[in-house]
Each structure stands twice: as C-alpha cells, then as structure tokens.
Amino acid sequence: MERDVVVVIGTGGMGQAIARRLGPGAHLLIADINETGVRSLGAELEGEGYLVTAAVVDVSARESVAALARRAASLGPVRSVAHTAGLSPVQASVEAILAVDLLGVALVLEEFGGVVAPGGAGVVIASMAGSFTPAPEPAVARQLASTPADELLALPVTRPESFGNSGDAYGFAKRANQIRVQAASTTWGARGARINSISPGVIATPMGAAELDSEHGVFMRMMVDASNARRLGTAADIAAAADFLLSPAASFICGVDLLVDGGVVAAVATGALG
Fold first, then answer.
1. Domain count within the chain
2. What φ, ψ does residue 30 adopt, rounded to 5°?
3. Does a structural domain hold residue 23?
4. Is 146 a catalytic residue?
5. 3-state class (DSSP) for residue 197
6. Phi (first) and psi of residue 27, to 5 degrees
7. Does the reported pTM lie above 0.85?
8. Catalytic residue among 21, 79, 174, 194
9. Is 170 a catalytic residue?
C-alpha cells in the first residue's frame, strides 16, 4: 500500500522532533545539507521502525530544492512538508543568512507548492525574532511577497550592506518568511493545500544553546524569565505545533504565523520585562 509522504527539510533538533512525531505510518523523506548527519539520522530512524529516505539538499540552490521536490513526489502523495533548515546569527554571515533563511524558504515554497498533494499542508519554521523586527513599508512588503525567488536577493532591501550585522539580517529574513508564507497560501490553495509558519521562541536545541551562549544570551534569559512559561521551549513543543498545523484539525488555518514562544513576545510587548 502506498504511504503518504512526509518531508522534513533540516535535521537539527526541531527537524528530528517533527520527523519522529509525523513519521509513524508515513514515508519519511528527511533532507539536510550535512550528508553524514542526514544519513546517520536516517539509519537511526529506520532502526526505530520508520520508513525513511534520506537525501542531501542545499536549500539556497534552486535545482537542489527542485530535485528534492521531484524525489518526494516519486515516493507517493506529498501530504506534509516541514521546512526547518536555517542558520542563526552566531553561526553565519549576513550573506549566508540571506541565502539560507530567506532565499531557501522562498525556493522551498515555490518548488513544493508544485508537488504538494490536494489536502496536504506545509509549515515553515520562522522565529520570534520576526516579531521584534519592524514591519516593512507596504511597497517593500509587496516585493517580499511577490518577487520570484531567483530575484529575491537582487532587491535593494536585501543587499547585504543594508544590514548592520547577522542579527539584523536574521530578524529581517524571519519577518520576510511570514510575508512569503502568507502570499504562498494562495498558490498552495490552488492545489487544495495549506501553508503556515511557526515562530519558535528560545528553544533548547544546539542552535538555541549557541544563541544563549552569545552576547545576547543574558537578555534572552531575562525574556524567558519574564514570560508566562518561565522556561525554555523544547523541540517537542514545536513538533506538537507543527503536527496540529499539518493536521485536518487546522483545515481552516491558512497563511498565518503561529507564535510558539511561551509568552516571551507578550512579556516584552506589555512591559513585563521591565
């Protein structure tokens, strides 16, 4: 019997948790730029009883993403797509963040928007950093929403010199992800599919730990302490949110961003942080 295909792009902490949550009974296609890591995870998941195909992908390259989309469609009906791949400010330069976190998302939305099955759904992992980035001017927002992915990094607003540091580029990219997902909801909708984004807060993954150890770590811990949850998020928290958005229970939710941050943004916005 043909199984539904679940695609998880990016096999860090959140990607692994989503794969394990969504994988039972499906054909899992996991993909990452790190060939050794993705093959190792594939073998591990197979040992746990999952049906897995592991693949290498560079999300910043059109043909690489297109090949992954074709591979997914060849395995069966593409029912769920979770895009978790990304770089954090402490990991990469402005140029790399724009290529992976901005262009990469746009390419995945375009290529998988052409193969997702009717009734299927996707989620893009953005970040609460997008909530702390001012909304772009309407004309810029329209450019970010509608410019073809291959031309996205040629816009004046996406030039590397427009950003003071990697953190600025990261926040901008994550705000742009929300805009891009909102626009893609109509093209995905034409296929009878849905697309949404999730903006995690401070999550206890290796990437999150690197951010906590950075110069911004003290302020991040202050935000967590002032939040409703008063704890770091877990990869399982994000997997649960992805599971909901990808399920029939969320069939009337399209083109939105779900903030899963334990109340950090609310604490900052309302002055609870002091």
1. 1
2. -105, 140
3. yes
4. no
5. strand
6. -100, 110
7. yes
8. 174
9. yes
